[in-house]
Amino acid sequence: MMKKLWVVAVLVLAAGWVCADDFTGARPLGMGRTFVGVADDANAMEWNPAGIASFQYLSVLAGFNKEFWGIDGDNLGTGYLAAANQYRNYFAYGVSWRYFFSDVYSENHIKLALAKRFGWKNRGFFGKHPLSVGLAFRLMGNGYNSNNFVDNPDDPGGTPIAQDPVFAGGTSKWGFSLDAGLLWKLTPKFTLGISAANILQPNLSLVGADEGKTSMQLRFGASYSPNRDLLVALDGRYFTEGSPVISPHIGF
């Protein structure tokens, strides 16, 4: 029994880590997690909010992923819904909802983004080198379902998990943050992107512990498309998890 609980706990943490890293969208994942310098559909809501101003059509995306199939008692999954569109040539707007769930723990990230592209009219410097900037407002939270807690069978006289002091102030925590991005099409074939995710770094710990402070990520990307059938992209991420981490990715 305890071994099974440990396995489920590890999988919850692993899936939650993936969710927290914003690795969302079938197309970006299929390109090797490289989308900061591409960002040309509603997936830009999670990767680079400036990208929602780089196209002039309604983009709606949805996805669902059931994690770790075949494990008894497992109920882990992630989901994603995003939409983005242009208001004439004035600005772009988008909304997205990303979530992770399990029997005992869940995460939610809700975003509203606004972006502006300079260069739609093909005049002047930005007419030749269009530049998009974007800002996303992020509401994020996590919660625990105490109804599904399983107490330690090896400690029958111990305090039930649901009565642990950690949950004295409640079983959920919400916070507010910001994402920002820039997408610059230097040539018709070459694009650069940069974004900062989770700028305000809210603390989502139920007891205010330092470990509950969410980390900010800096992301850099470039894409090159020599023709309509080929797109090469390169991304790099910088964040801190105890020590600085640099994570490069390349995709096609």
Main attributes?
252 residues, elongated, disordered N terminus, 4 helices, ten-stranded antiparallel β-sheet, 13% helix, mainly beta
User: What is the helix tally?
Assistant: 4
Biggest sheet: strands, sense, closure? 10 strands, antiparallel
Strand order of the largest sheet: 1-2-3-4-5-6-7-8-9-10
**Rg, Cα atoms, Å:** 20 Å
Order of helices and strands: HHHEEEEHEEEEEE
CATH class: Mainly Beta
Structural class comes to: mainly beta
Mean residue pLDDT? 83
General shape: elongated
Number of strands: 10
CATH topology: Porin
Span between termini: 44 Å
The CATH architecture assignment turns out to be: Beta Barrel
Fraction of helical residues: 10-25%
Low-confidence stretches: 1-20
- The percent range for strand residues is over 45%
State the domain count.
1
Task: Give a structural overview.
This protein is mostly beta strands. The protein has one domain (27-251): Porin, CATH 2.40.160. Helices cover 13% and strands 45% of the residues. The chain is built from 4 helices and 10 strands. The chain has a 10-stranded antiparallel β-sheet with strand order 1-2-3-4-5-6-7-8-9-10. Strand 2 and strand 3 form a beta hairpin. The radius of gyration is 20 Å and the shape is elongated.
How is the secondary structure organized here?
Blueprint: H1 2-20, H2 26-30, H3 44-47, E1 59-67, E2 76-87, E3 91-101, E4 105-118, H4 124-128, E5 131-144, E6 172-185, E7 190-197, E8 217-227, E9 230-241, E10 243-251
